Amino acid sequence: MAQKIKAAIIGPGNIGTDLLAKLMRSPVIEPVWMVGVDPESDGLKRANELGLKTTAEGVDGLLPFVKEEGIQIAFDATSAYVHRDNSDKLTALGVLMIDLTPAAIGPFCVPPANLQEHLGQGAKNVNMVTCGGQATIPIVYAVSRIQPVDYAEIVATVSSKSAGPGTRKNIDEFTRTTASAVEQVGGAKEGKAIIILNPAEPPLIMRDTVHCLTEGEPDQEKITTSIHTMIAEVQKYVPGYRLVNGPVFDGNRVSVYLEIEGLGDYLPKYSGNLDIMTAAAARTAEMFAERILATATA
Amino acid sequence: MSKKVILHDMTLRDGMHPKRHQITLEQMSSIARGLDDAGVPLIEVTHGDGLGGASVNYGFPAHSDEEYLSTVVPLMKQAKVSALLLPGIGTVEHLKMAHEIGVSTIRVATHCTEADVSEQHISLGRKLGMDTVGFLMMSHMISPKSLAEQAKMMESYGANCIYVTDSAGHLLPNTVKDRLQAVRDALKPETELGFHGHHNLGMGVANSVAAIEVGADRIDASAAGLGAGAGNTPLEVLVAVLDLMQMETGVDIFKIQDVAEDLVIPIMDFPIRVDRDALTLGYAGVYGSFLLFAKRAEQKFGISAREIIVEMGRRGMVGGQEDMIEDTALSLLRQKQRA
Description:
- The complex is a heterodimer.
- By secondary structure, chain A is of the alpha/beta class.
- Chain A is 43% helix and 26% strand.
- Chain A has helices at 14-24, 42-49, 58-69, 80-91, 111-121, 131-144, 165-169, 171-184, 220-235, 272-297; strands spanning 5-10, 29-35, 53-55, 71-76, 96-99, 125-127, 149-159, 188-198, 206-214, 241-250, 253-260.
- In chain A, the strands form two sheets. In chain A, strands 3-2-1-4-5-6 form a six-stranded parallel β-sheet, with helices on both faces. Chain A has a five-stranded mixed β-sheet with strand order 8-7-9-11-10.
- In chain A, strand 10 (241-250) and strand 11 (253-260) form a beta hairpin.
- The longest helix of chain A has 26 residues, at 272-297.
- Chain B folds into two domains: 6-267, TIM Barrel, CATH 3.20.20; 289-338, Orthogonal Bundle (Helicase, Ruva Protein, domain 3).
- Chain B has helices spanning 25-38, 65-72, 92-101, 119-127, 144-157, 173-186, 204-213, 235-244, 253-264, 276-284, 290-301, 305-314, 323-338; strands at residues 6-9, 42-44, 80-85, 105-111, 131-137, 161-165, 192-196, 218-221.
- Chain B has an eight-stranded parallel β-barrel with strand order 1-2-3-4-5-6-7-8, surrounded by six helices.
- In chain B, strand 2 (42-44), helix 2 and strand 3 form a beta-alpha-beta unit.
- Chain B is globular and about 60 Å long.
- In chain B, 59% of the residues are buried.
- At the A-B interface, strand 7, helix 7, helix 8, strand 8 and strand 9 of A face helix 13 of B.
């Protein structure tokens, strides 16, 4: 496929830079702009060296070029505080926003659970939940598609080095947003999320635990198959997504112990938590892009 | 040395761990009344893992935090009630709920290297006019100097008291002193200093005395030691020792013994003592609340609790990682089956 959908990344930090590395490999997305606020930032320089156009004037610096250059997708890797403004300006021009901030204006998107749904509904803004959400909700969904889940709880453990100042200043946002997506996307009647920061050196690879309490005795065979199918699905965009132990069945409890190793594009491999966010965002964009391209050629 | 020390009771919070969070409202009321009557000034009431701890991971309690707190708070004649909160588990909503019920002290606990996740909760506690405490868990894992830096962060968010918390019961009197001294030197003179000990190496009382010698204003202890691991510093013993040292605690020596003996011992599911597993927690420096989970994994998978605890320590697990106990047991089991 020669034609690609043009995209812009807002936020040249660690996440934006890692995302850029992934998009550079995409067969359907062409990253063309990197948007920042500091002309001296390393992220903008790196993007520039990779051949992207850059602006240090925020989204306003990008707006005049959106129509002219045919930018159809934008990723926001800034912060919840500025996301609404960025989103309003870009969606007004018909750009699809993929939100990696915790702002969650648009519906939650966890690719193997509900991306197809969003594709069909012509969403203008989708939110990528949280790292813990991307890592665990596919498993909750894999259980709830077999049998009703009364309660699901996820425990995300990330290395201290991969938890940035934004997460630390508002750690409640992680627990709230993740728990609510465990319900809305994972399909659990009640959701809970716990996050632990571990300072061990060398840094530990992200670990995630999913506990589901099923309505009635869990159907062990079907649930096990469903979980393995789902893990293979996630591995398509996060190859380092691994089942360490489980599923463990204990009464109506189903527990799954996961490890998420990143690709190490720009971020270190132990930051599976950040990698799964950028990978899921790239995956989401590709699915939308494929749809746009298919519609255009049809 | 004549000095006043505030004793902070842990029976109804840390004591929730060996009770698997199943203390009844009646038991809680009678113990809290006994502590109040004995003159204990501050009593903590929360799920063992703090507000919002109710979970598969840490155990579902017999009653919600809200029920326990609204039962105990109105009963108190002189004692104030505190609540514990671990950011990442509990949220500001839990904090507001506790404040509305009449909790006067909020203790915000983080792993000793992660103080900056407490800003949101400490600043809210202060804004609500609460006695706001920063609680640095697993303090043995970093140097006194690094610990002091973390303490300063919590102070800057608004904490009026900082605790050096020996969650693993691994510290010894000299390592307690090094840490408290470094923290004391770093903090403003008006910021109080506290110590929370565990008895896994049998050092609860000795470490608490060491802490007081370098200026601790508050000491945590628990009637009959009811708490995680081999328990907390036994409150009734500490009261007697401090009396002999002519330190003022305001706690009645005989009344607190009676609370321990008549109210707390009878509700224990097993004796709180330095058994080999608790001793291993202390020796290897592993989080105290892992004990019962490791014992349960031993029952289920046939891997000794001690082996699991040692492996958890080797892997650098921190407080809250209870989920990794079943995971570790399963991985050890697989290794054995392969061998």
